[in-house]
Amino acid sequence: MADQAANAGGKGIGAHLGGHLRENGMILALVAIVLFFTVIVRVTQGVDFLSAQNITNLFLQNSYVIIMALGMLLVIVAGHIDLSVGSVVGFTGAVAAVLTVNMGWPVYAVVPTCLFVGLLIGAAQGYWVAYWRIPSFIVTLAGMLVFRGLTLWLLDGQNVGPFPKSFQSLSTGFIPDAFGVGKPNITALVLIALASVAILWMGLRARARDQQFGITPEPMVVFAIRNFVVVAALMFVGYKLASFRGLPNVVVVLAVLTVLYAFFTETTTTGRRIYALGGNEKAARLSGINTDRLVFLTFCNMGVLASLAGMIVAARLNSSTPKAGVGFELDVIAAVFIGGASMTGGSGKIIGVVVGALIMGVMNNGMSIMGIGIDYQQVIKGLVLLAAVIFDVYNKNK
Amino acid sequence: MATLLEMRGISKVFPGVRALDHVDLTVEQGEIHAICGENGAGKSTLMKVLSGVYPFGSYEGEIHYDGALLTNRGIRDSEAKGIIIIHQELALVPLLSIAENLFLGNEVASKGVINWPLAFQKTEGLLRKVGLDEAPTAVVGKLGVGKQQLIEIAKALAKDVRLLILDEPTAALQENDSQKLLDLMLELKAQGVTQIIISHKLNEIGRVADRITILRDGATVSTLRKEEISEERIIRDMVGRDMAHRYPERDSNPGEVLLEVEGWNVWHPEQTGRQMIRDAGFHVRKGEIVGIAGLMGAGRTELAMSIFGHAYGRNISGRVRMGGRVVDTSSVTKAIAAGLAYVTEDRKQLGLVLDEPIVKNITLANLAGVATRGVLSRGREQQVAEEYRRAMSIRTPSVFQKVVNLSGGNQQKVVLSKWLFADPQVLILDEPTRGIDVGAKFEIYTIMNELAAQGRGVVMVSSEMPELLGMCDRIYVMNEGRIVGELSRAEASQERIMSMILNDGKARVA
Lengths: 398, 510
Hints:
heterodimer, A: 398 residues, mainly alpha, ABC transporter involved in vitamin B12 uptake, BtuC, 77% helix, B: 510 residues, alpha/beta, Rossmann fold, 3 domains, 6-stranded mixed beta sheet, 17 helices, 24 strands, 34% helix, nucleotide-binding (chain B)
């Protein structure tokens, strides 16, 4: 771990922060952007940016980017790219609509079917990339066209909807209050409190284990400040959500997936192997790692996540449209690179990607509230992406 | 003779490492000056300071060149003054022609339009100068490494070179190409080009160098004149001690047969109908070090890699036995499970994930060894890395150091650690001491002896016959994809090996 290298090499807080510039900088940037919009929106529009409703909206609007960015990180770490995810979102949404609306399938049958369709799509593309060594750019560019076309064909160019309530709840549903209080939602508060305790407990346990093995842990001050910021933000958001309609289902899905993927990438052998494969494929293969299968699996995984995102998008719009998901691949890829993944593969962290996606989402939301035109929004987002990558390259060369 | 270059008290510090510590170097006009030192002694860093890779101000000390203080801001500045470095890894564009490469960034053009006839004419002149008989339109990537090296020199000549720096120019060259290159260096010297050569090969230095400066641990140890140069003296100054024995002592006591390969045939992966290995067979016993000798292109690496998980070649046939049982080595995973390990000759491309730290590289071939049901234990991983760091004396401030920052010898120890952690019964070491200096070589040899003493079998593939003779219990000789002979330690000599190769070639022609 580069962070551990900084620990072992440099002493003191300054040296430590230097080694963690990217991670801590990202969190600071997110906080700064949120504060910036809070002030600006309050002054110019007289609107509360951090209102419960807006926070809920923020998550609902951006969940699909975060979910797909988790899978895209793995694809990019393995040294590939997937341009087809936007079309896959459209296609799986269309499949869900046809099954639910036209054929009347129940939601518990539709969801696994769509995830399986996503898996097949990922496998079909990953097969050519992994075993035929066709560049992923080409394969997924083809996939982007193919699945957009199939979406149009399946929907016959029409919007299909509306979905039954049960399906909509995938996106717009909330965890009901088990305590029956209603407002504030006690279930939400309890879950958030448990999550905060879990974060602190796992952080402390990791520190203790590091010390036990003689690894110098990060300075207590940095650990305390970072965790304070994270837990405070979590509690604030949680309190706001609880005082509105409770925890959106999507937020729970997001949280579970993020923890799962962070664990997978950092502490499992398969996760480690994907990083090694991206760092030096030949060396990884000669170390007994089945690199082809790993590439194949990262694409399968991407397909499943894209189909999950596709259903969430369809549920949110309450209909499946031929245009659903157009351009999503760009938001997802941008989030991964803003999150600090390397363009050549081999490095990048889940937490960075999630923060990267949130930065994009907050900017989208904030600029929309301010009434900034879509033209300027695109320019600004483009420049932010460029700046983040320049920052990385500058840091690496320094 | 006038002094062309004087470097005074050069110091250069990297985070955690003092790479250069008040190094002095004086180069006279028109001489060939050799620089010697162990890996990590600071040779390459010193040359990077000189050639402007590290600009003026990023190091301490002064460089006087041609009577003036050198204040280079970058490589272009130093090239404008005629200081040109040819790096170990060649900087040619493989898909472009010789002419395009020669004038890359320095095109024969007016107002941005290239004058091809003139460029070709100039190219021909330069190629003649370096003794290379190729068309200016030939694509560089299709030429051998030896010819590419000559093109690099021609490229330097195209820029009016006054001080030519060659960083281990013969490391990747065969014997006759090396000789050609050394001849060219002497010819350039006669034309007045001052040269600095970094080399590990003491016989080459003896042949071309007028003086030699020896570095150790980032400091100048001595500068010797031609008359003072002797192998013993150079080795003593390099390693800081007398090296009575170049190869560590070992009591050889081979046990039962561990690895046995029979009737091994391998075809070229791309060119159909080209057989690379023909009916090869050999065996290794417990506690035995077996050498595989042969010239470049004899098929030694191809043999080793095809056995190790069919990592090379197509249509592979033959049998591999481990401890008498036939084993499947058709994938690297299976080969590792069968108890094999292959330490590659190309550690940067094939052996290491350069941007990852030492820890992650060491555990890569045996992640299961630091994991429970697929979940890694960072602590256990670090303990393992620290153990190997101690056992192999890997010189690094921390096991979290990226391997790209290590010297060649230390990188090799990381690769060896990786394979030892996979606990193989038989290790195939392909050129284990390539690009490594005398001191680190001795350490690698010692490790090999320990492996044999632990009852493992070691196969050593090497181009350097003296090291095979010094280390091995038995030596197989390969030529053109076949094993053409087998010599015991007592029988083996450089002459016997060479005559086996040559007689095989003659027999084939007849």
